[in-house]
Design goal:
Helix 1 links the parallel strand 3 and strand 4. The protein has ten helices and ten strands. The chain is α/β, with parallel strands linked by helices.
């Protein structure tokens, strides 16, 4: 394990794990954490040995959102620069060619809710709580609004974004925003190890094509998405990958 004091980085068996490490602040995202995330995500993208990126929080919480307590410069340019770096984290995770997994216990609220939701998969302990708490302070969850609006129906997204309530993990699991829900930290670690291990065992090119196709298909009419799928199949066939798969299947039937 290595990394900045506020973002620890561990690598094992194809998985790169980023741990937000400000436990006394419930891992709130200050400038140092955000810069650390940007560098670590960019490194993971460039690292051919990384097959999956995992994000967790230290000390029993995922993330309490952006730390707004230390902002002495209130100028417009400073505000724009701060939001550019935070938005860059979300853009990088959205475009990452490797699968991303948020492992959540405790609080994942405000920007922490956004950070969890932008990941491809969410694994959570059943006592975890989520929420767009920005509304409690009288301003919208501006970055989470487009993220949630892509993930769930419009009425539910608007409810989560407007009311600013703490949302139990069970409810998010029931509406399809959490992939695995377990009781206790030990069970969460076990499920994480198995889930991430399964992701790392997949063919990296097939994973990348699936991620790219899934992301594109969400933003285009079905007829166009089917055309994209047809062309992807043709590319796979031309590469010889389908022939290899069929030969492998034939060989397995002989055993």
């Amino acid at each position: 394990t290595r990394g900045w004091a506020m973002v620890q980085i561990g690598k094992q068996d194809g998985a790169t794990t980023l741990i937000l490490n400000r436990p006394k602040q419930r891992n709130a995202l200050d400038a140092g954490v955000i810069d650390g995330l940007i560098q670590a995500i960019e490194e993971a993208e460039a690292d051919s040995a990384t097959r999956c990126l995992v994000i967790r929080g230290a000390g029993g919480n995922f993330c309490a959102g952006r730390d707004l307590t230390n902002s002495p410069d209130r100028s417009l340019s400073a505000a724009l620069a701060a939001d550019e770096t935070w938005t860059k984290v979300i853009r990088l995770l959205h475009r990452l060619s490797k699968p991303t997994v948020a492992v959540v216990e405790g609080y994942a609220v405000a920007g922490g809710f956004t950070l969890a939701m932008i990941c491809d998969f969410v694994l959570a302990e059943e006592e975890a709580q989520f929420g767009a708490l920005e509304m409690r302070r009288g301003f919208p969850a501006a970055i989470n609004t487009p993220v949630l609006s892509q993930l769930v129906g419009p009425r539910l997204a608007l409810e989560f974004l407007m009311f600013g309530d703490l949302i139990p993990a069970r409810r998010l699991y029931d509406v399809g925003l959490i992939n695995r829900l377990v009781a206790g930290a030990e069970a969460l670690n076990q499920v994480t190890q198995q889930f991430v291990g399964n992701l790392c065992a997949l063919d990296a090119d097939a994973v990348r094509m699936t991620k790219d196709g899934h992301r594109a298909a969400r933003n285009m009419p079905l007829i166009d998405a089917l055309e994209m799928g047809k062309l992807s199949n043709a590319l796979i066939a031309a590469s010889g990958r389908m022939d290899e798969a069929m030969q492998g299947y034939a060989d397995s039937k002989k055993d």
